[in-house]
Amino acid sequence: MKASPDPAVARTASEFAKDMGGLADAYAEFVGNWPTGISIFENPEAFRTEAELVLSILTRRIERENQVLYPLADTMISVGQIDLNQTTT
């Protein structure tokens, strides 16, 4: 989708790809902050706060994918701009 000739589609796909990097970074930081059960046991409120934040970010991402990205992909498939039988390398 990032290679779409439609600038709006390409921009949307690029934004989603960029946002995914931020989500991955937030998750990696979360995992790094809570490497063991002991670390969670020692500070459960901080763990809960951070977990709620990461899950909130993930929930918003999934909602945006469902509302924006997947309908856009469905449209591109229906007009032949995406071929599901084509393999990528």
- Low confidence ranges: none
- Span between termini: 15 Å
Main sheet summary:
none
Mean pLDDT: 90
Radius of gyration: 18 Å
The helix content is: over 70%
Structural class: mainly alpha
So what's the overall shape? elongated
N-to-C series of helices and strands:
HHH
Beta strands, count: 0
Overview of the structural elements:
- Helices cover 76% and strands 0% of the residues.
- The chain is mainly α and 89 residues long.
- α1 runs antiparallel to α3.
Main attributes of the structure:
single chain, 3 helices, elongated
Give a quick summary of the entry.
With 89 residues, this protein is mainly alpha-helical. It is built from three helices and no strands.
Give me the secondary-structure topology.
Blueprint lengths: L6 H27 L3 H6 L1 H35 L11
